[in-house]
Amino acid sequence: MGLREDKKQAAWQEIRGAAWRLFAERGFDAVSVEEIAGAAGVSRSTFFNYFRTKEAVVVDPAPRVVRRLDDLLAEQPVEREAWEALTAVLVGLTRADRDDMVVRRRLVADSPELQRGAHELGEQLAAQLVAWMTTRLPHDPLGAALVVELSLAATRTAWAAWPEDAGVDAYLALLQDCLSRARPAADGRGRPEAH
User: Fold this and answer.
1) What is the pLDDT of residues 131-173, one digit of tens each?
2) What's the pLDDT score for residue 195?
3) What's the pTM?
4) Interaxial angle between packed helices 98-109 and 112-136, expressed in degrees from 0 to 180 and rounded to the nearest 10
5) Lower Cβ count inside 10 Å, N or C end of the chain?
6) Could you give the CA distance from residue 59 to residue 37 in angstroms, rounded to a whole number?
7) Is 108 exposed, middle or buried (0-12, 13-18, 19+ CB in 10 A)?
């Protein structure tokens, strides 16, 4: 990254860090955008240059995580089986986001507004993954969508089962277990025979 990108990343991090500290002290709903901007030493308009909404400070992934997702999608060899490639992407994405997961989880759990924002972000990720999987399975767009939805169901199941006091490694183990258990359905084993 160049100097300009470094400065943008530092500003993004400073704003988000200030917001997360305020949210930890007073709760998400009790903190305004103006207070976040003030704590970060920036103007309200600068805040909105980096984040669309107050909710985005919590639910939007860090720019490094977005870049890592793009890299993970591009790195998967074409000959790699679709479920294995998708599993590698989801596990790699989790590893890239590990520094923020515990705090984000606590904040989202306490706010219906943030839960809606996290759901919307999940829908955006699903659409991106379906588009990618469709390039891997161009002959079967329905199958591509089903594989992605099944993998995301496994991801949500792991998230719900992740104990509150357990670290990210525990979540990664749950995620890998859930993805492994979902694989037979993704492979079509147990599919009813056509008549």
Assistant:
1) 999 999 999 999 999 999 999 999 999 999 999 888 899 999 9
2) 38
3) 0.85
4) 130
5) C
6) 18
7) buried
